[in-house]
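Meet today's protein:

…
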Amino acid sequence: MERIPFTREGYETLKKELEQLKSVARPENIQAIEEARAHGDLSENAEFHAAKERQAFIEGRMSDLEYKLGNADVIDPDKVNTDRAVFACRVLLENIDTGENVEYQLVGPEESDISMGRISVSSPLGQAIVGKKTGDEIVLNAPGGKRHYELVDIL
């Protein structure tokens, strides 16, 4: 069975989403299906078909979340070894070309959000960072050309 790495925060976020789907979205959608069904002929009832599509989406998302939560491996960022960049750690990078510093936390694909400084370990930059030590150079082959970073610190 595949273990899926999560930070505690990411795990809790998915748990809340699953609970919201079960306790709010699903009951609301069931009500929408019942109301649409009451309008008569189901073969030409757009509201009914939209509600059924929404139901399929909700059930599919719930199944996906239950699988991920059931196979979750929650990793505490405070307990990871910071000799090298690994899942859940924060890293400070310097763009060698521009001198600009950026800080990222390495997380799983479900948790990634670049606006919050969280990048996936499976992204090209995340893959380039994992395993590096402070002072190592990171070369990223980006669509616009190569980018060079230095791993300034593992936080």
About this structure: The beta strands are 4-6, 72-74, 90-95, 101-107, 118-120, 137-142, 145-154. The two ends are 31 Å apart (CA to CA). The CA atoms of residues 88 and 154 lie 11 Å apart. The longest strand covers residues 145-154.
